[in-house]
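When time allows, look over one protein, given below as sequence and tokens. The question is which stretches look regular and which look disordered:
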Amino acid sequence: MADTDSGARPRVAVLGATGLLGSRVVTHLRARGADVVEVSRRHGADASTGEGLDAAFDGVTTVVDCLNVATLSRRRAVDFFTTTARHVQAAAQRQGVARIVCVTILNARDPQVHRWLGYYAGKAAQERTYRAGPVPVTVVASAQWYELAGTLLAQLRLGPLSLVPGMRSQPLAADEAAAFIADRALESASAPAGDIAIAGPEVRDLAELARAVAAHRGGHRRVLRVPVSVTALGNGGLLPRGEVTTAPTRFEDWLRAGS
């Protein structure tokens, strides 16, 4: 097992290394001088079955879980995140990994939040599974990313119309979340496990952000804001609580930069 306290080059495994977040985490880790092991099916490892994880974690000090599954189904999300977390914990213990960094969504564990979204219920189950395992876990809870606005445009479409829930959030750029996660992954292996949160600089309505993205892209797509104020998604349930690191980039600046 590598030892970041000894001054040796840290060796970090990133699960979901080819995804939107994972690929950015890999880039930031390498820019900081880390030896990065990319873990994905493309690289010969499958966290859903556990195949290839032992080899991927060989000599690794820290594992970063950036896994994702494209689903709105509560059952599928809970099964995926529970199963993968169990396999990662087991392989990490066998290989002597010192710490796991689990990336989750801000307030996903709150029952009033995840009752409305199956994917969030899956992330809540992932957190519980990791905490129950033998390897210490740092949970990094991120607010929604600006990139989500584009995803919401495609999820529920009726011809040229996109139906987007009016969820209030404090979003940030995925790249800033990735940089924050990379920094946490490179902390001393003896750093205490626990929860850390990051969010953006402003409270925004995700439907309004989706409308701005649609206008920026051109074309004729219209956004219909669907009120969800009677749920925790619309009445502040997604906003940070307690101590949180604030990313600096505003949405309009991110959009103008062409991200």
